[in-house]
Structure to design on (831 residues):
């Protein structure tokens, strides 16, 4: 296992990533493309779906493997390129970013490459790859432009997130996975170099089980050689509309302060009851209760209105732990027990108007624990999206967010106006303002941050999307200019 | 304190909200369990299971049309005319019709987006129950009669019929977000993914690979993480709600930068009155110069060693200080860190 792990060491990961990317770049080209059946005429989705397609976040930031909203009819009908190999698909996202402040500049290049292979005939063998490289084109730049990518020893910072093969047996009921992978359904997300096994028993009970283990993988940290994670789970649908899952995780690391070994057990229950989905989760760390969570969500039949409620309670004081469980101890110190309740409601008022709003309330269990890094706070937030705004030409998005505790508050307001143009172009302009008011030292510090942005996205075809972004930020420290251009290619 | 203020304070208590949530849910279950008088409606169980009627007796177009059809008033009247004569008006079969049309909601309707022909599927399954299993026990038509995607995919899988999106859907594609992925999806998808709800339509892997999680949570940063955020804002937010950071970042993320980059607002009083926030990075103190935090101060390495008989477990304050402040000790520092 050590040998496997060393293969994926940060520096080697850079070489693996660059080699894979170069190979794909060399292989992609116009040759060997084949026409595919043109999609049938699309039927408009309900308004909430339309809103998702116009999410305020970066269009390139959405899951590229699942695609984007279609471009123009012509672009949507354009054929996808033939795969490099039968069963192989993937995407590549390249971005250049220029940032300037106070006479200094920083040029960075980012590349993310995802590859998915499914053996095309029997579909029993899969292989997946996902990696990211950040290249500082001109050194580390000015200190005010440094980022987490600049903390490595060289100008190239690469992370290998996934590189595994998976083999299925017995009509997919059993599977074995080997390589670098992640577990996302466990109580804590685990990234590791190792092996996993999972199985299921067909039937109404929906029994699933599995086990995994390997060396910890920690992104953004140069030395991640001394960790280990192992775990097992079992899940079933023992009653109508319900599901239960039991987890055990063992985590070790000697990375930060010393040798930490933690065992985490978790029990989760879900129940679908008419229009309600309710769930509960409980975790136990070593021999003490760690946290409990209750969730409930109601949606109307048409999916136009939903109300979600959440209650969370951290039951035990969290200090030094194995890395994946560590409560940011080094920077934020002890994490004291607290309770939090939140509610969020969403309403599609009409075909063109969506409104959503919510709040969260947190209360530290023991008032004497309230301090610099453990707060009582309230958060209120809301957003409004209006489509076909001004002669059906624009989409208007407004949002507001307000955090407030007894010592500080953070307020943020934003708005953007976007328009879908002909030829697969989307253009948007917007601004958002944040005010941070806090009292770490003088009880009176205040920062105002105003950001303006303009963005142009061109969905040239189902394979290619291009993005150009300019952002200007004016805060109490400096004025920043950011220019970003990128291309997303699906193949 | 006014009643309004007390009410506002109470409303800010998470546990109160949790109690209200639990009470509300239990109330719903209780009232649901009370049931009530069954509405007058068509009973599939009575007609199919107990009377032995064939499905085709009412759904006459099941083999010949895109839609299987619903019974007409005349069809029902063949059996009900005599019995209905003595029933009150609200219990007559005629109340189920509006003119010649059956009034009940079409719970099996698939929606305009789904491509389906009852005619072309008729006869392919062994019996109607292959797709309509819930009919036999159904006494009042309701959502439980709705067809699920599972019944479609299981047959398509067995018969090795194409089961890509375009076979059954005009609009849904892997390249297009479904209606469920609406405005609230970014806030709610985590629990939905973990729930792994029953049914093919709820399977994430229809469109996504597992790397979809990583692609967003590891390789992308939120729009809020701009220049100010990087220099100052993140600390304020992390101090408020560190749990939200852990959605993407492990604890090492802080150390990656903070071990090499001096915090913008860095001075010896940071994190006071217990300024062990400093010690998080400058540890052990004996190996750090005092000037790291306090200019022109000699190194801790020059601190005098403890005299013989002074054990690390002793309380220094018992003998030292005489009631005066001991700056490091009083702020949570450990004398043994420097006085070895």
């Amino acid at each position: 296992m050590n040998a496997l792990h060393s293969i994926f060491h940060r520096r080697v990961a850079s070489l693996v990533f660059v080699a894979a990317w170069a190979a794909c770049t060399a292989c992609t080209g116009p040759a060997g493309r084949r026409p595919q059946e043109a999609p049938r005429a699309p039927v408009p989705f309900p308004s909430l779906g339309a809103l998702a397609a116009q999410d305020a976040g970066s269009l390139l930031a959405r899951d590229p493997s699942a695609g984007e909203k279609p471009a123009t009819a012509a672009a949507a009908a354009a054929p996808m390129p033939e795969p490099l190999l039968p069963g192989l698909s993937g995407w590549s996202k390249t971005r250049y970013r220029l940032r300037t402040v106070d006479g200094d500049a920083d040029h960075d290049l980012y590349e993310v490459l995802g590859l998915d292979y499914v053996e095309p005939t029997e579909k029993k063998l899969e292989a997946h790859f996902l990696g990211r490289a950040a290249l500082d084109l001109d050194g580390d730049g000015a200190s005010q432009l440094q980022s987490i990518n600049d903390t490595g020893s060289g100008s190239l910072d690469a992370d290998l997130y996934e590189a595994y093969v998976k083999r299925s047996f017995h009509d997919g009921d059993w599977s074995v996975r080997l390589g670098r992978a992640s577990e996302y359904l466990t109580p804590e997300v685990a990234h590791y170099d190792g092996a996993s096994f999972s199985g299921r028993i067909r039937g109404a009970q929906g029994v699933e089980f599995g086990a995994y283990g390997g060396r910890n993988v920690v992104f953004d940290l140069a030395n991640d050689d001394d960790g280990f994670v192992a775990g097992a789970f079992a899940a079933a649908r023992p009653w109508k509309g319900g599901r239960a899952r039991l987890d055990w995780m063992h985590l070790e690391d000697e990375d930060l302060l010393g040798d930490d070994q933690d065992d985490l057990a978790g029990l989760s229950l879900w129940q679908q009851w008419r229009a309600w989905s309710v769930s509960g989760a409980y975790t136990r760390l070593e021999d003490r209760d760690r946290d409990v969570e209750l969730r409930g969500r109601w949606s109307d039949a048409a999916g136009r209105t939903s109300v979600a409620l959440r209650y969370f309670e951290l039951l035990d004081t969290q200090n030094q732990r194995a890395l994946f469980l560590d409560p940011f101890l080094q920077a934020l110190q002890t994490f004291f027990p607290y309770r939090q309740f939140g509610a969020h409601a969403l309403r599609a008022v009409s075909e063109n108007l969506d409104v959503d709003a919510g709040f969260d309330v947190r209360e530290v269990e023991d008032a004497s624990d309230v301090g610099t890094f453990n707060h009582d706070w309230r958060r209120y937030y809301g957003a409004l999206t209006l489509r076909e705004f001004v002669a059906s030409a624009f989409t208007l998005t407004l949002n507001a967010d307000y955090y407030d505790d007894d010592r500080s508050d953070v307020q943020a307001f934003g708005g953007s106006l976007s328009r879908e143009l002909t030829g697969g172009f989307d253009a948007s302009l917007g601004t958002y303002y944040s005010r941070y008011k806090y009292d770490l030292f003088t009880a009176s510090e205040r920062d105002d941050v105003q950001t303006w942005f303009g963005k142009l996205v061109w969905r040239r075809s189902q394979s290619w999307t291009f993005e150009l972004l300019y952002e200007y930020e004016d805060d109490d420290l400096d004025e920043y200019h950011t220019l970003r251009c990128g291309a997303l290619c699906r193949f | 304190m006014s009643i309004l203020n007390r009410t506002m304070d109470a409303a800010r208590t998470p546990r109160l909200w949790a109690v209200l949530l639990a009470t509300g849910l239990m109330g719903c279950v209780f009232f649901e369990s009370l049931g009530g008088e069954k509405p007058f409606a068509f009973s599939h169980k009575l007609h199919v299971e107990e009377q032995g009627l064939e499905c085709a007796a009412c759904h006459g177009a099941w083999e010949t049309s895109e839609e299987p059809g619903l019974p007409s008033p005349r069809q029902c009247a063949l059996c009900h005319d005599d019995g209905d004569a003595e029933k009150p008006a609200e219990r007559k079969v005629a109340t189920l019709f509006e003119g010649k049309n059956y009034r009940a909601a079409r719970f099996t309707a698939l929606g305009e987006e789904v491509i389906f022909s009852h005619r072309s599927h008729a006869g392919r399954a062994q019996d109607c129950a292959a797709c309509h299993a819930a009919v036999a026990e159904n006494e009042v038509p309701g959502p439980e009669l709705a067809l699920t995607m599972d019944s479609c995919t299981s047959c398509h899988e067995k018969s090795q019929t194409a089961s890509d999106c375009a076979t059954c859907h005009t609009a849904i594609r892997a390249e297009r977000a479904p209606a469920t992925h609406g405005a609230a999806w970014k806030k709610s998808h985590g629990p939905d993914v973990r729930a792994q709800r029953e049914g093919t339509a709820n399977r994430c892997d229809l469109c996504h690979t597992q790397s979809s999680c990583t692609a967003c949570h590891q390789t992308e940063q939120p729009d809020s993480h701009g220049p100010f955020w990087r220099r100052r804002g993140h600390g304020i937010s992390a101090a408020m709600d560190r749990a939200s950071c852990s959605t993407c970042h492990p604890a090492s993320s802080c150390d990656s930068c903070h071990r090499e980059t001096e915090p913008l607002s860095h001075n010896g009083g940071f994190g006071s009155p217990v300024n062990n926030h400093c010690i998080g990075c400058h540890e052990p103190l004996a190996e750090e110069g005092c000037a790291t935090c306090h200019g022109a101060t000699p190194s801790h390495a020059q601190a005098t060693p403890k005299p013989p008989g002074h054990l690390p477990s002793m309380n220094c304050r018992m003998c030292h200080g005489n009631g005066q402040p001991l700056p490091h000790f009083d702020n949570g520092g450990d004398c043994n860190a420097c006085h070895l």
About this structure: Chain B touches chain A through 96 residues (CB under 8 Å).
